[in-house]
Amino acid sequence: MELTRLVGSLSFCIFLVMMAISVAAQPSDDDSSPPVLDIAGRALEQGIEYYIKPAITDNGGRFTLIDRNGSCPLYVGQENVSGPDGFPVIFTPFVEGETLIRESRDTKVVFSAATTCLQSTAWKLGERDTESGRRLIVTGEIVVTEENESWRRAGNFFKIQKTEAGDNIYNIVWCPTEVCNFCRFDCGTAGSLVENGKRLLALDGSVLPVVFERA
Question: How far apart are CA 97 and CA 76, in angstroms?
Fold first, then answer.
């Protein structure tokens, strides 16, 4: 009995320590994270349309909506080739009152496009691809209700993190620590997954560095 109590107390203490580390590591609302810059060196702004495209031109084209299986929801992906096709997105910071999109801060991403699907074109963490095991990015808004804890909306928030590949080149990451304290233990960086000739955006595999171009 005493051993059982000791193990239980130790497990609870470890849980408290992990939660404290997670909370302490979160950026505060007044964090001075640098703004994300577009290819012209301008800070990304809330409400402005931007195209996302790979930093290396032979890695596909602009980001777009992908009809993966002939039904809704639509998936986030890329045009197969570099060119004028693709849809712009609008970024919205998680922090209320913030007008700039900042590095490594929780941000909602929504395609500025009309579709035949009824759901939102907001990016959302989706299911795992059965063959590759990678998590896909789909579209749709997570509805938070009284019966649904607010942390569940974490699936709609992503981060933009600067790479060491060059100026104004970034990775897109799912790691919404401002929305969800414990989600950092399941983070993933986005890259391409080619399936049946279509380029899908997926986590947990090869990484796709991107740049942002004002529409």
Answer: 27
